[in-house]
Specification:
The complex is a heterodimer of chains A (215) and B (482). With 215 residues, chain A is an alpha/beta fold. Chain A has one domain: Aconitase, domain 4, CATH 3.20.19.10. Chain A is 31% helix and 15% strand. Chain A is globular, with a radius of gyration of 20 Å. In chain B, helix 8 links the parallel strand 9 (175-182) and strand 10. Classes of the chains: A alpha/beta (215), B alpha/beta (482). Bound molecules: iron/sulfur cluster. The site of iron/sulfur cluster has 13 residues of chain B, from loops.
Chain lengths: 215, 482
């Protein structure tokens, strides 16, 4: 996994509540057996005026001129500003894969859905929860100023505005550690293999029906 | 925590404690996973990850796989097996699951195997998921299996790989929520209406960060299949896990299932499972209460499962909403759905009807739909009514009972087990602008097809709507028809 330490980038809006994972990446693109290449289909139904299909040349499709991410001012954006309950719905990791592939490194919202939130950390994408009023303020400032950039400092756990003003955010220790160092958490868990085996042996004794039933 | 408090545990506390391998200093915990279900959409990248790292699955006997999302529901296309799948990308994905299961020695119910079905239907029906287990799957509706008194939740693909490699998940304990539904349900009101009413009350993010236990008289009186319907949609209220305490109904259901323990082992298991309920006086962080009598058949009108009202109600008006974000949400939903504020729900005309999905494709669901459809014909204005059983075994049982004939005589189509129009990854889709009465769980924009408009309802409400051509209160429908 790629590490995340500090990042500065243009902010772009996804200005609606309850953005679900079907909206982030529609199901026809989940048929891929790869982890990459979902970027052109991020928010597909909002970005384009036609129905997208896997394997298509997306540069030839009619784009929706009303969708902010299509506006020149947000090109190259890497910090997504969003509203409440972002990422609700399915567990598809294709959602963070698509955001990442499109170039986003951080998402700032008042709240996230649990599974999506968790999936982001596994992919070097940082979801940041800030209070609703602060997020609203960031939206207003972003709309008012073309090229509005935010800096995210994971080590210090702050979002820094162009004015220099900072907003602190919470992140749990384990996730922060993995993200800062780009660690593979499978490797970390396997360091506890002896504990897992010990638990397993005990469990096998207490609940033997849970083992070897399916073969 | 005091000793006394510790003695009084919720069901979730018990399941958590039973599976705790290790609490780590950073506040996370390693939780042991008993059952890992796999389907074709969220597993290929996990297998690829294992290969790249040179890792093997920790315990193959904990894994059960089946293809469900991409497999065709059309009998002719289905008859050709994997090679017969016309959509090339879908075919590759189903093929990949097959190959991965062979390579890694994992039991798979293949595309036309008698054990195949929607992963959340076959888990309980085979006994692959049991009370007291931790169950995961790369699919958010894994909460379904909590109906058995299990800790079950959806995970992402990285976690699928993690569980395969380590048999564990890294977790933080969730908070406890109790949703109590007391009293009694009126006639024509089903488990689906109960869970839609719950989501309408607490909202799609109401359960975020919680494990929800569903309790109260109404839940206790539901069949296992009804409880699965309720737990299935816990995620639609934001909760990764939903669960119901083990009781006699649970035990009667599990007994005799192919993978369930037998003989002496069964007795031992039952003894172990008898403690799988919240202790009297256990503390919940949040309690939500509903009365069964007050729940009417529900119909969703918008693009989020919380946008739901009783069938007797009107489509809400943004003018009545004070909160600006919510107001904008209602306006956008009305526009997408092509509805007017204040319109009667019963005036919504349907283009297609879908009876199926891991929420409502079990035998009782099909019986309920058939009971309404029997002796009627679908309205001419309705282009298509799909009935898609949740598994091969449900299909066989329904055919044994002659339900397939009832549906076919009513002009409905009887299909092969798959997710089908629940998410429209196979050929079953809504056209742009089409309204669908659907027994599935998500009414998100585009979920059932590009531009499609989904209304979530119970199987009997869906069947009644198919016949009337618009929504009707199934209670009046049954009265008129009898
Ligand atoms: S039926 Fe629908 S919700 Fe259930 S697993 Fe399939 S796609 Fe997901």
């Amino acid at each position: 996994m790629k590490a995340f330490t500090q990042h500065k980038g243009i902010a772009a809006p996804m200005d609606r509540a309850n953005v679900d994972t079907d909206l982030i990446i529609p199901k026809q693109f989940l048929k891929s057996i790869k982890r990459s290449g979902f970027g052109p289909n991020l928010f597909d139904e909002l970005r384009y005026l036609d129905e997208g299909q896997p394997g298509q040349d997306h540069s030839k499709r009619p784009v929706n001129p009303d969708f902010p991410l299509n506006h020149p001012r947000y090109q190259g954006a890497s910090v997504l500003l969003a509203r409440k309950n972002f990422g609700c719905g399915s567990s598809r990791e294709h959602a963070p894969w698509a955001l990442d592939d499109h170039g986003f490194r951080a998402i700032i919202a008042p709240s996230f859905a649990d599974i999506f939130f968790n999936n982001c950390f596994k992919n070097g994408l940082l979801p940041i929860v800030l209070e609703e009023e602060i997020v609203e303020q960031l939206f207003q400032e972003m709309y008012a100023e073309e090229g509005y950039e935010l800096t995210v400092d994971l080590e210090a756990q702050v979002v820094i505005k162009p004015s220099g003003e900072t907003h602190a955010f919470e992140v749990d220790t384990f996730r922060k550690h993995c993200l800062l160092h780009g660690l593979d958490d499978i490797g970390l868990t396997l360091e506890d293999a002896d504990d897992i085996r010990a638990y397993e042996a005990k469990r096998r004794e207490q609940a033997p029906w849970l083992f070897d039933a399916v073969k | 925590m005091g000793q006394q408090e510790h003695n009084k545990q919720t069901l979730y506390d018990k399941l958590w404690e039973d599976h705790l391998v290790k609490s780590r200093e950073d506040g996370t915990a390693l939780i042991y996973i008993d059952r890992h279900l796999i389907h074709e959409v969220t597993s290929p990248q996990a297998f690829e990850g294992l290969r790249l790292a040179g890792r093997k699955p920790w315990r193959t006997d904990s894994v059960v796989a089946t293809p469900d999302h991409n497999v065709p529901s059309d009998a002719a296309e289905r008859a050709g097996g994997i090679a017969g799948i016309q959509d090339e990308v879908s075919r590759i994905q189903v093929q990949t699951l097959d190959e991965n299961c062979k390579d890694f020695g994992i039991v798979e119910f293949g595309i036309n195997d008698p054990g195949q079905g929607i992963v959340h239907v076959i888990g309980p029906e085979t006994g692959a998921t049991l009370p007291g287990m931790t169950v995961v799957c790369g699919d958010s509706h894994t909460s379904t299996h909590g109906a058995l008194g299990a800790l079950a939740h959806g995970i992402g693909t990285s976690e699928v790989e993690h569980v395969m490699a380590t048999q564990c998940l890294i977790q933080k304990k969730m908070k406890n929520m109790l949703v109590r539904v007391d009293g009694e349900l009126g006639p024509g009101v089903t488990a689906k209406d109960v869970v839609l009413a719950i989501i309408g009350k607490i909202g799609t993010a109401g359960g975020t960060g919680y494990a929800i236990e569903f309790g109260g008289e109404v839940i206790r009186n539901l069949s296992m299949e009804g409880r699965m319907t309720v737990c299935n949609m816990a995620i639609e209220a934001g909760a990764r896990a939903g669960m119901v305490a083990v009781d006699q109904i649970t035990l009667d259901y599990v007994k005799g299932k192919p993978y369930a323990p037998k003989g002496e082992m069964w007795d031992k298991a039952v003894e172990n499972w008898s403690r799988l309920h919240s202790d009297d006086g256990a503390q919940f962080d949040e309690v939500v209460e509903l009365r069964g009598e007050e729940i009417e058949p529900q119909v969703s009108w918008g693009t989020s499962p919380e946008m739901v009202v009783p069938v007797s109600a009107l489509v809400p008006s943004p003018a009545d909403e004070g909160d600006a974000t919510k107001k904008a949400g209602i306006e956008r939903a009305l526009e997408y759905m092509g509805l007017n504020a204040g319109q009667k729900i019963t005036d919504i005309n349907l283009d297609r009807v879908f009876i199926g999905s891991c929420t409502n494709s079990r035998i009782e669901d099909l019986r309920a739909a058939a009971a309404v459809a029997k002796g009627h014909k679908k309205a001419d204005s309705v282009k298509q009514v799909l009935v898609v059983p949740g598994s091969q075994s449900v299909k066989a049982q329904a055919e044994k009972e002659g339900l397939d004939k009832v549906f076919i005589e009513a002009g409905f189509e009887w299909r092969e087990p798959s997710c089908s129009m629940c998410l429209a990854m196979n050929a079953d889709k809504l056209g742009a602008g089409e309204h669908c009465a659907s027994t599935s769980n998500r009414n998100f924009e585009g979920r059932q097809g590009y531009g499609g408009r989904t209304h979530l309802v119970s199987p009997s409400m869906a069947a009644a709507a198919a016949i009337a051509g618009h929504f009707v209160d199934v209670r009046d429908f049954q009265k008129e028809a009898s």
